[in-house]
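thread: overnight batch results

M.L. [08:02]
morning all. the overnight job finished for the chain we discussed friday. pasting input first so we're all looking at the same thing
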Amino acid sequence: MLFCRLWLAFSLLVIFSRTPTASAELSKGFQILTNRGFQVQGMVNTGDPFHLTTYSNANYNSINWLWTSNPSLMGPAPGFPWARWAMSETNMPPQGTESSYLSQLVALQLGDEWNLNDDATRTRLVDWFNSVRANWPNTILFHNNYGGQVAEDKLVDYINRAQPDMLSMDRYPWRVNGSDTSPGDTPFHWYSDIRVYREYAKGYNIPLATYVQTYYSSTEGVRSPSPSELRLIHFAALAFNAKMLIDFTYNTGASSLFTNAYGGDNAPNALYYEKADCALRARNFGKALVRLKPIADAIPSITTSMMFMRGRDSTGVTNTIPYSFLLDPQNPDDYTDWVYQRNDPYLSGWSVTNKAGVKNGGQRGDVIVSWFTPLDESFDGASYSNEVYLMVVNGLTAANGTAADCLQEIKLDFANSFTSVEILDPLTGNAQVQTLPLVNTKRELVLDLNGGDAALFKFFDGAPFVGVQVTGPPAIAVQPASRTVTNGTDAAFSVVAAGTSPLSYRWQLSGTNISGATDRSYSRTNAQPADGGNYTVIITNTMGSVTSAVATLTVYFTPQITTQPQSQTVNAGSNVVFSVVASANPPAAYQWRFNGTNLSGATKTSYTRTNAQSADAGNYSVQVFNGLGSVFSSNAVLTVNAAPSITAQPQGQAVVLGSSASFNVTAVGAAPLAYQWRKDGTNLANGANISGATTSALAVSNVQLADLGAYTVAVSNSYGSVTSSPSILGQATVPVILTQPQNQTNNFGTLASFNVVATGNGLTYQWRRAGTNLADGGKISGATSDTLVLSSVTRFEADSYTAVVTNAAGSVTSSPATLTVLYSLPLSEPFDYPTGANLGGQTSPDFLTWADVGTNTAGPNVTVQSGNLDVT
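M.L. [08:03]
and the structure it wrote out:
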């Protein structure tokens, strides 16, 4: 035992210092096993009685012959699947009559428990593998060693050089003196040994096999396992990623499965039937497990692919973790037991109860949890990846009694991110969907497992359960999702469900069947607003039916006006309401307009004009819009029955005798409006030099002295009348300037202004600088008024200014006024010239040439001399 413990400590150091070999495709061993299935092999000695039906009835799916075989006992060629040990290089098949049976040869063990620590022996085995490998493309070639037999570096050398198709180990923990188990009947050392081989098989991407203890030997101190122990050594091996189980049933007179002093299979006993149940369960679990591998550990320092939920011994002391699973100074490996939120991204809690209460003093036992994922993503199909499977093993056993005596209730809590799991039934090999109840915000799975028994399940998300059929009533993994589309495009719905095949589908809209919609997906083509609503699908099989959750189809479309705003006629002072009815998705926004101009705050489906007056009469419309587009309503005309009101008065004017004059008025009010122009209070009539006397525009031609006077217009309708302000028609005289603009002297940067005073009627003004008309803008304002203003003057504004005063009779130009701009000397301004630059003719920031500063004036940076303006 001391040797074993020291070897494990050394072993784990090497395991976690090496880089595992990865493979982009299935290795040969995995390819053979996925084709032939998980292997449960029964070993046969040609010297013992053997009946194939005894083994097939025990659910073995292949026979493993010890050294030599008797193929005829496996039926007519090619016979039952089989395997064999080869004692040496000269004992390779075919021997005897084996040739006709080679197509069913699943595995070939090249030697057993050779001392691979010896270099020569190891090299001999390597050469053996390399010499025969090409001859056995469809047979798994492997060698077996007992746990702890081979030093770590020697095992690595063997794997690298021999390239076996599978690793295999044996250890038989159920001993008479209990030396190989810890308190609580835990196979402490077997866990440690198989874990080491698990790591190498995983790292080198090859399967793992292990021998199962189904014999007893007084000389070896090995006893027959109890039913719970037999189950544990099966299903714990599966949790450790074993893909092949080989039973020791060859020992003459010492098989645990048969009561026969002479050996052979003539007298199956009670444990035989336990074995038959174990083999059935293992093969059914194996349908999936043969296509699975351990998940990658999340971080190097913590294990997330396999853990122990530790139980207690009969006194209540917590079980220790097996060698190579515990962090300690002597054995610093990466394995540990389950700790919340430290080394498990899936479970959020657990509890274990010794439900039978018969064994282990009623204390709970260990539970093993292993996490798997598909060997190859092709097993999941193109739509899924990184699927996770969980295997849970009840580690509570006892050396006597039944497996039911070790029944434990295992509660696993998960985050509320899914509602169901698919759990494999080990008796049928099919999976069923199981909904998990919500317990204290967690989804809880409750497993009742007899001693050594196991459960295998995955989260129900629509991905296939690899290698397994899902049966039972239909269950929905992925509900149809609501859709939002633009009108004219397609809307697709789909559902993912599982259950006994075949599944039938019937899609409905608002509870009514949709013609022809009988597939797992349904597409609404050219979706229109009327297609919006609640879609469901009913899924049916021979065992029941289920209706999906509602998927809502929302169809977006541009606004459509179904009721236009209406024209209205109201009396003055009334309130007027305009409204529009429109449909749109997303919902529409509104903007009312008056005569084409947006009305502030008018953004609802209706608009109210309170106390309507003549000025409110006109065209009202509304723009209806959303993110997809907009539409304008037709105009609704508002007519207001009101007395006229004048909005633009006629303007007075002065004209030269003999010329023409005109007057205009703008009025609003209920139509029709009537006009009557008057002069000095007397109605005018068309004729002579008068026209438009009863319209909004009056024209007077060939104006004479008699036409001069005050003109008004009366505007009337059925509701009243209004008279305009008088507009004076006068005789124009040539303007006369009374006050001339004055010279101005201003400092640089100040404001300067010029003013002219003139007499005459109908005067207009135009200021000029040096004879050129000025216009407002920049520094200039008042260019066409009686006062000109210049801001921030510089030398460029220093000039002469005149004003031209004009009316119908003529014009007059003012005397010039001069603007002088002064600069204070000495002038100091910033500049940035390179040394040696000639400043002659260049301007300062204030637009003065440097020569204007003066001559013979020395500054700190510039010497100014006549004809020599240089930077020094």
